[in-house]
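Deliverable D4.2, example record:
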Amino acid sequence: MHQARWFGGAALAIAAAALLWPFLLSAVVPNTTAIIAFYILALAIDLVLLVVWLVAALRYSRRAAHGEWFEIPWLRRSRGRNGPPL
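Output generated by the structure prediction step:
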């Protein structure tokens, strides 16, 4: 449960940043063509992030459904833990 909460929180933060950056950039750049280009780029990045998130979430879900103990590698590194899985 602890890993799932951190995974969800990290996914939420990344998704919020991915959705907000074109809006914040469009507030600074007055060129309409550039703003449209930012949003096209943002849409492509959002789609890539969605696929990466879905693959990771489904992989972790499948492992948890089979009762496996596992660590999310990047979460373990970010917290600096060397102990058993959470």
